[in-house]
Specification:
The protein is an alpha/beta fold. α2 packs across α11, α5 crosses α6 and α5 crosses α11. 35% of the residues lie in helices and 15% in strands. The chain starts with 15 loop residues before the first helix and ends in an 8-residue tail after the last helix.
Length: 310
C-alpha cells in the first residue's frame, strides 16, 4: 500500500489505513535511531529543501535529522538571508530553487493555504510543516503515534485538547487525525480562543477545565500564544492560568493511566505546571523523539516506499 497523495498538506480527509501505514512504517524506522550508526542509505537519491518562513526549533531540526538518517541530501532556507528580503516573490524563490533540481519541499509559512498553493505551482512534492492557522500534519501524526505507542490503539480513547484552539494548526491536525482513527475528541479554552462553530468539527467543546478533563485519557496542552493577550482576547495571563493551567491538583479528574502531552514550546506556569510537565505521566520528550521517526516515515513513503536498506 502507498499514500494516496504525492503531497502531505494536512490530515483532513486522510483515511485511517493511510495513518496506520505511516505509524507502522515509523515503528520500523524508529529502530534506526537506537543503533550505533543512526543512518541507512534509503533516500540517497532524494534532495529535500527545508523552506521555513517562520521560526522553528523542534520541527525544523526534526525534519533535518529525519532526512540525514535516511541519507537524503538536504538544504535549508533562511528567510533573513534570502532574496525574499529584496522583494522576490514566493513562487520565484521556489522556481529558482527547483531549477537546481530538488525533489521535495518541507515548508512552513505564516499564511494558511500556502503549502497547497505551492504544491499546485511546482513539480516537487510538498510536505506542510505548518501553514498559518490551518494545519501542522506531521505534528498531528507524531502526537497520535505517541498515543498509539502507549495504548496500542486510538479507537475509543478520550482525548482533550486544551489551549488556543482558534489559532492552532496543531489542534486542527490532531482533531482530523484522531477522528479518522476513532477517538473521542474534546477541546477546552476561553470562548475567545475557540473557533467559530468549532462544534461542527464533530467534537465536544468546553469552557470549564474541570468538566472537560472528566474521564479523559489524554490531555494535549497547546502553547498559549502570549501575543493574544495584547490583542484583547485575554484579560491577563494570570486569569488564563487560574482557569486553564493543567496542574497536579487537576489531574484527579482524568482516567487512570492518563497521558500528558505538549507539542512545545511550553510556557511553564501558564498552560502547564512544571510538576505536570516533568511528571511520570508526561510524554513530552518521547513526542520529540517520535517526531523524527514519523517524519522519516513520511519522507520514505512519499518517495515511493522503496525497500528500507538495513
Amino acid at each position: 500500500m502507498k499514500l494516496r497523495s504525492r503531497h502531505l498538506l494536512g490530515l483532513q480527509g486522510v483515511k485511517a489505513d493511510e495513518l496506520n501505514l505511516i505509524f507502522d512504517t515509523a515503528v520500523t524506522l524508529k529502530q534506526i535511531l537506537s543503533r550505533p550508526i543512526k543512518k541507512v542509505p534509503t533516500l540517497r537519491h532524494i534532495t529535500v529543501l527545508n523552506l521555513f518562513f517562520e521560526p522553528s526549533t523542534r520541527t525544523k531540526i526534526s525534519f533535518e535529522l529525519a532526512e540525514k538518517r535516511l541519507s537524503a541530501d538536504s538544504v535549508s532556507f533562511a528567510k533573513a538571508s534570502s532574496s525574499v528580503v529584496k522583494g522576490e516573490t514566493l513562487l520565484d524563490t521556489i522556481w529558482n530553487i527547483e531549477a537546481m533540481k530538488i525533489d521535495m519541499i518541507v515548508m512552513r509559512h505564516s499564511v494558511s493555504g500556502t503549502a497547497l498553493f505551492v504544491s499546485q505551482n511546482c513539480d516537487s512534492q510538498v510536505i506542510n510543516a505548518g501553514d498559518g492557522c490551518h494545519e501542522h500534519p506531521t505534528q498531528g501524526l507524531l502526537d497520535i503515534y505517541t498515543m498509539r505507542e502507549k495504548y496500542g490503539q486510538i479507537k475509543d480513547l478520550r482525548v482533550l485538547i486544551v489551549g488556543d484552539i482558534k489559532h492552532s494548526r496543531v489542534a486542527r491536525s490532531n482533531i482530523w487525525g484522531l477522528k479518522a482513527m476513532g477517538a473521542s475528541v474534546a477541546v477546552c479554552s476561553a470562548s475567545t480562543l475557540l473557533p467559530f462553530e468549532v462544534e461542527k468539527m464533530g467534537i465536544d467543546v468546553y469552557t470549564r477545565i474541570e468538566e472537560a478533563m472528566e474521564g479523559a485519557d489524554v490531555v494535549n496542552i497547546l502553547r498559549l500564544q502570549k501575543e493574544r493577550q495584547s490583542s484583547g482576547l485575554l484579560p491577563s495571563l494570570r486569569e488564563y492560568s487560574n482557569r486553564f493551567c493543567i496542574t497536579k491538583e487537576r489531574l484527579k479528574y482524568l482516567n487512570k493511566n492518563f497521558t500528558i502531552m505538549h507539542p512545545g514550546p511550553m510556557n511553564r506556569g501558564v498552560e502547564i505546571s512544571s510538576e505536570v510537565a516533568d511528571g511520570p505521566d508526561s510524554v513530552i520528550l518521547p513526542q520529540v523523539t517520535n517526531g523524527v521517526a514519523v517524519r522519516m516515515a513520511v519522507l520514505y513513503l512519499l518517495s515511493g516506499g522503496a525497500k528500507i536498506i538495513e
